[in-house]
Amino acid sequence: MISVDTFRQWALALPDAVELPHFHKTSFRVHKRIFATLDEKEKTAVLMLSPLQQSVFCAFDKTIIYPVPGAWGKQGCTVFELGKIRKTMLKDALQVAYEEIAEKAKVKTKK
Predict the structure, then answer these.
(1) Among candidate residues 84, 90, 76, 106, the one with its CA nearest the CA of residue 9
(2) For residue 65, what pLDDT is reported?
């Protein structure tokens, strides 16, 4: 089981990561782009993965890692249930989401 505070610490430990509000959730951003959101009440995190990365993580256990319903889920936004997922799995997924968004932000600023 991963606590909300632990998730927050992991996300903020990533280079240049900042925490900002995002509607009724907390977002974690790098270069102004969201790589993860945290729903403290539901004890879930949503990570911004590519569709391919999403399929890899969801293959582990679709009851605790699954696409966000609707269009955002089809684009790779993936729910992780903090109370049920292994620490190593979530740490890996968080790093992948961070790198995915940081790379996109870097490419966008070069244009």
Answers:
(1) 90
(2) 98
With vertex at residue 106, the alpha carbon angle to CA 72 and CA 31, rounded to the nearest 5 degrees, is 70
Query: pLDDT tens-digit profile of 19-33?
Result: 999 888 999 999 999
**Could you tell me if residue 76 is left (phi over 0), alpha (psi between -120 and 50 degrees) or otherwise beta?**
left
Residue 28 sits at φ, ψ, to 5 deg, of -120, 130
What token pair was written down for 1?
A: 């089981």
pTM, full prediction: 0.92
Decide: residue 104, CB within 10 A, 0-12 exposed, 13-18 middle, 19+ buried: middle
Rounded Cα gap, residues 67 and 50, in angstroms: 11
Q: Which domains does the chain have, with CATH numbers?
A: 4-110 (3.90.1150.30)
The Cα 83–Cα 3 span in angstroms is 7
What is the Cα–Cα distance from 4 to 38, expressed in whole angstroms?
8
